[in-house]
Predict the structure.
Amino acid sequence: MSQRTDGSPLFLHALVEQLLRDGLLTRCDGRWLLQHGFDRVGVPASVRELIGQHLSRLSKSGRALVEAASVVGVRFSASSVACALKRQVAETDSLLAALAERRLFIRRCGTTRWPDGTVSSAYEFVHSLYSEVIYRQLPGALAARWHGRVGRRLENAFKGRTQEVCFDLARHFTHAGDYRRAYRYQWQAAACGLQRQALAEAYRHLLAARASIEQLHPRAVSGADSVAIGCALGATSVALHGYAARTAVEAYEWALQRAGSGTTRARVIASMGLCTALMASGALDKAHAVARKIEYLRVNGRLPKLLSATAMNPLGQVWFYRGNHRRARQRFGQELALLRRCQPAIDSPPLGGLLWIDPFVACSNLFAISLVLGNRADRGLALMEESLGRARALGHPFTFISALTHAALVHFVCENWEMQQTCAREALELATECGFPFWISTAGILLGHALALSGKRAEGLALLERSLEAWTAAGTQLGRPLYHAMLAEAYLSGNEPERALGVVQAYLDPAGASEERVHEPYLFGVVAKAEWKLGRKKQTHIWFARAVNVATRQQAPYWIRRCSTQLEPRSGR
């Protein structure tokens, strides 16, 4: 509230009165509470009237100056105002200085220098509410015309250095209705936000860029630009809301639609993002169909070597999650061999690599797990270490967190709780620092499980349950049976078999079964252990046999060894 009113007692008093009238400021247990939505409250009528009175006392020339200044922003330069009004900079500067001396709406705050050599005084409104109220009173057509003039002048003045004023350019061209320019600077502003890890800010600019593009004829925007913006929007949505977020799916679908019958490269990039989002939402059948289209384009299109190699990953991922480890391992092995030949190309990621997972790491993540499940633990662990080393050296947060999380999963399969803790804890700390909700909850699940099974049951269970609740709330379906089986195993560590069975019951009912299969040997093994603890030998035999049969069919013998070690002596075999 202080920021909104710049600390002015008069404005603050008026705003408080309006908040009280609207029920957005309430008293509870001796404290005053601001309700959600207070920041969207308009300027109180009393304040608007007061500012209107002050404005009416200005000359026609003085009023035009502050109106043009309100278009530029709370802080503005004489050169920008001069441009809007089509006046000389020196003349405009003198008139603004006179207003500032009288403390009429504005005050001087330094000097501005543009790259083209333009120098003028800088000013700011004494109260931000002045700028807001004055701007809202302007006729729309006049405001749009002034925005256009200021935007074009800034664009020329900062030629070659527009990233320094991209936020201003995006705003001016949007309000001017110049959507061709607007989307380019909104995209540039989003890129700046991503590089600073300001995800929410970047997301807003990407949404604005998509909206601007939709105002233009499809031929006015290249397919490559649309796909880049749509995929960046999808990736940012993933970082903010999780892989299965509906906004992510919609962003990738929009990118694919905009790609149309354009370049094969654009269609492949958009399809890869869509495939990942569909997998995360549990729609493996749909993801498989998209992955097959990607494979067709990869085989029949002329793709760059790096993209061609990376495009092999979606089909490998679908096979992995469906439990087809033979085909998945073969696919990942071919992809990794191709990626090693493209090594120089993958050392320069786009957009600072913030929301981009290095292709080598992305392939190694699941390949390492599949190798361990195929009784090739030495090779899988070596690949995991190589992937972790590369991710750490690249310094891309999203890549490194992904590598750490999957390393924790590798150690989970190997029942190395200490290393699972180490990797999951580092992933959790980094994800929390970067503000990636999906990875925060995923790493929390893995850390909680490892703690619970290594003697810190109360601490581990609390973290696991809290993280799983947050993870489930995000709507992600892929991995849900696995993580609930991990929770069940944690309950079993405290001799709570009935509670464990209750957690996984929904995933044992064929009617509620997901399209995912990779978790089944582990899930059935956990159920068998719970049945044994309850003294039900027949059910123990049945679930143990199911675990072994599915692991055999999936060519994942490591699950058989793990189940056998835990259950075979107890099942009477």
Notes: The radius of gyration is 30 Å. The mean pLDDT is 87. The CA atoms of residues 326 and 555 lie 7 Å apart.
